[in-house]
Write a structure and sequence with these properties.
The structure is a single chain. This protein is α/β, with parallel strands linked by helices and about 425 residues long. It folds into 2 domains: about 240 residues, Glycogen Phosphorylase B (Rossmann fold, 3-Layer(aba) Sandwich), CATH 3.40.50.2000; about 160 residues, Glycogen Phosphorylase B (Rossmann fold), CATH 3.40.50.2000. The chain contains 16 helices and 12 strands. The strands form 2 sheets. The protein has a 7-stranded parallel β-sheet with strand order 3-2-1-4-5-6-7, sandwiched between helices. The protein has a 5-stranded parallel β-sheet with strand order 10-9-8-11-12, with helices on both faces. Strand 11, helix 12 and strand 12 form a beta-alpha-beta unit. Helix 4 packs antiparallel against helix 5. It is globular. The model has no long low-confidence stretch (mean pLDDT about 95).
């Protein structure tokens, strides 16, 4: 079976796609990975057929488009950001995905790129599978995961989610149809209820909503890319870990463009004074400049190796980092910035494995100290270990996803 795995975004968006592609390849399927340029090095190491989508996600985040800036400032979904993404390299993405899909049996795509993939699937008569890294189907159980809202009346959640979903669909479809008209093709005619959905998160962290009505969705579990067996940690990191008690990890991954990153970093470090700290540079360059003696700067280090060696994890609550933190059995101090991060911060809090989320726009040292005391309390640690045990007992998400893709391809005669 030939499978195209496509999607766009930051590291947290692309790593699950790489993991799925690698799993398909290991299962003897032919696979093409189509995603952001930053995935190229890892794809090459894994021997994957890699095609690059135009436009660097890191550049968009670092340079701060108007829409991204609004999201970082307000902490919630920006209509301007949706508009920008809706017209972002549309023709180029259609061409790249179309070329990759020639001779394919199934096309699998995550949210950013899904309408482009639907256009290609329509033209080439391919079965399409949607990937969700966070829930986007409307439900009364909680606010839409990308809204940035955390406290809304229950009755409002479903209509608000429907509004967000329809607005995004309209925006993306308009851009796709403009390109299709220029190419002399008929309008996009996808029926989303007929598109199977693979939900790449753990049911322990988030079970199915009580009122989802889609006829074909599967919560597969998160898609992890294992650390290469040949990987070795930097010597200075090992020496730091061996020199004292387990440190507190601080890192915000691909978050950038959030005002004065240095000032935020310094307020967090002041709140953690007296503790050993591992500070991850991330896309914001948090390790630039002078640091206190208790802080050890690090670059990219696999979370599955690092987090279990820490005493607490201060992070932005992206979907991938939230899952890795929960897997580690180590409590979290959530500092959500925007998009789905407040949602996942809320999930960790509801499970009792994290402190109350901290607002990065109004964060002072005292709030950090209070959150740390809550996170390292014995009851929080015990719950974190129990949740980690439940996650460890779940079947491999990539394996379940591959079985579902096989089922969908077989059902459609591929």
């Amino acid at each position: 079976m030939r499978v195209v795995v496509a999607g766009y975004g930051s590291t947290g968006d692309t790593l699950p796609l790489i993991a799925l592609a690698a799993g398909l390849k290991k299962a003897a399927h032919e696979v093409v990975l189509v995603t952001d340029e930053a995935a190229g090095a890892t794809a090459g190491r894994l021997g994957l057929d890699f095609r690059e989508l135009a436009g660097s996600a890191r550049q968009v985040v670092a340079e701060g488009s108007h829409g991204w800036g609004e999201m970082m400032e307000r902490g919630r979904l920006s209509p301007q950001a949706v508009l920008e993404i809706g017209r972002f390299h549309t023709r180029e993405w259609l061409a790249t995905i179309s070329e990759a899909a020639r001779g394919a049996d199934v096309l699998v795509c995550s949210a950013l790129g899904l309408h482009h993939a639907a256009s290609v699937a329509q033209d080439q008569k391919l079965p399409l599978v949607a990937v969700q890294l966070q829930p986007t189907m409307p439900t009364r159980d909680y606010p839409h995961s990308l809204s940035g809202l955390t406290h809304t009346p229950r009755w409002l959640n479903r209509p608000l989610g429907t509004l967000i979903l329809r607005a995004a669909d309209l925006t993306f479809t308009r851009g796709i149809n403009r390109a299709r008209r220029e190419l002399g093709r008929s309008p996009l005619g996808v029926v989303w209820d007929e598109v199977p959905i693979l939900m790449a998160w753990s049911a322990t962290l988030l079970p199915a909503a009580s009122d989802w009505t889609h006829p074909d969705f599967t919560i597969t579990g998160a898609w992890y890319l294992p650390t290469p067996p040949e990987w070795q940690p930097p010597v200075d990191l090992v020496e730091f870990l061996d020199a004292g008690d387990p440190p507190i990890y601080v890192g915000f991954g691909s978050m950038s463009g959030f005002g004065d990153a240095t000032a935020l970093r310094d307020r967090i470090l002041e709140g953690l004074s007296g503790h050993r700290v591992l500070l991850s540079a991330g896309w914001a360059g948090l390790t630039d400049g002078a640091l206190p003696d208790n802080v050890h700067p690090i670059g990219p280090v696999p979370h599955d190796w690092l987090f279990p060696r820490c005493s607490a994890i201060v992070h932005h609550c992206g979907a991938g980092t939230s899952h890795q933190a929960a897997r580690s059995g180590v409590p979290s101090l959530p500092v959500p910035f925007t998009a789905d991060q407040p949602f996942w911060a809320g999930r960790l809090r509801t499970l009792g494995i994290a402190s109350a989320p901290l607002n990065p726009r109004k964060l002072g040292p005292d709030a950090v100290r209070t959150a740390l005391a809550e996170a390292v309390a014995g009851s929080t640690r015990e719950r974190a270990l129990r949740v980690a045990e439940r996650l460890a007992a779940e079947p491999a998400g990539v394996g379940i996803a591959i079985n579902e893709i096989d089922r969908i391809a077989t059902r459609t005669g591929r």
